Amino acid sequence: MHQASHAPPLKNTFGTYGAPPRQADGRVDQAKLLAELKDLHATTYHWLIWQNENDWEDLQLFLPLAAKEGIKVWVTVVPPSESKPIARFSSEPFGMDYKRWAAEFARLSLKAPNLVAWSIDDFAHNLKTFTKAYTDSCLQAAENINPRLAFVPCVYYKQITPQFAATYGELLDGILFPYRAESAGANLTDPSKVGPEIASIRKLFRKDMPVFVDIYATAHSRLGASTPEYVKQVLDLSKQYADGVLIYCHQDPQKFSAKYNIIKEGFK
């Protein structure tokens, strides 16, 4: 069985997720993205393969450029619940072949050692697919190629149950935890549950399991938008209680200047 402990610690993870600036042809504007990440004092960028069929290719172009700037990269693929035919896109080109994705990411991380972690979005919404045995087989495929590549799936507070921790805990190198005050009924207005929710997550896993907070800077389909002040407060508390912070999503410095500047200040 895959053992989580091989991956190096992902300390000092301060980054943004998805929504990169794009050129007119839909390809990622690599230079602009890197300039913004540097300006934000980001140590990490979390790449999402979902917006078009070039995202995988663009990731491969991005990695050496990010390495020159000392920026680490995580990458996410989407689960069945966010793939075709339910969604407009799947993660291309390997779709829902997660074992293939795991192996490809591991291969790529040998060439580009700044690719340090991979993730599956909404992992725990899709446990019918991601049984313990199947998840283990995917991680084994990656480990056979590069045991140092970390697996940090996205899991929401309500799904981080004692049963989930007991079943999956030994496979995971960390938890990507999108904060939305679920212990108070779910909202994007109350930052006060960051500390208590992280504490209760930590109780369920091994002592050194890192917890990374994903902060909603972009609106949630059901819970609406967050304010700049909320982003600031959640960021401050996450720095205190979590092992790292990712911002969902990368913010355009012109369109969303208030949040962009708060993130910049917080990452400094």
Give a verbal description of the structure.
InterPro entries: GH. Residues 1-22 are annotated as: Disordered. Helix 7 runs parallel beside helix 8. Helix 4 (132-145) links the parallel strand 4 and strand 5. The protein is α/β, with parallel strands linked by helices and 268 residues long. An eight-stranded parallel β-sheet has the order 5-4-3-2-1-8-7-6, with helices on one face. The protein has one domain: TIM Barrel, CATH 3.20.20.80. The N and C termini lie far apart (40 Å). The protein contains eight helices and eight strands.
What tags apply to this protein structure?
GH; globular; alpha/beta; 8 helices; 35% helix
Domain module count: 1
Structure classification: alpha/beta
Low-confidence stretches: none
Backbone CA Rg: 17 Å
Shape: globular
Kindly state the number of beta strands: 8
Q: Biggest β-sheet, characterized?
A: 8 strands, parallel
The ordered H/E elements are EHEHEHEHEHEHEHEH
The name of the CATH superfamily reads: Glycosidases
Provide a brief overview of the structure.
Residues 1-22 are annotated as: Disordered. The chain starts with 12 loop residues before the first strand and ends with a helix.
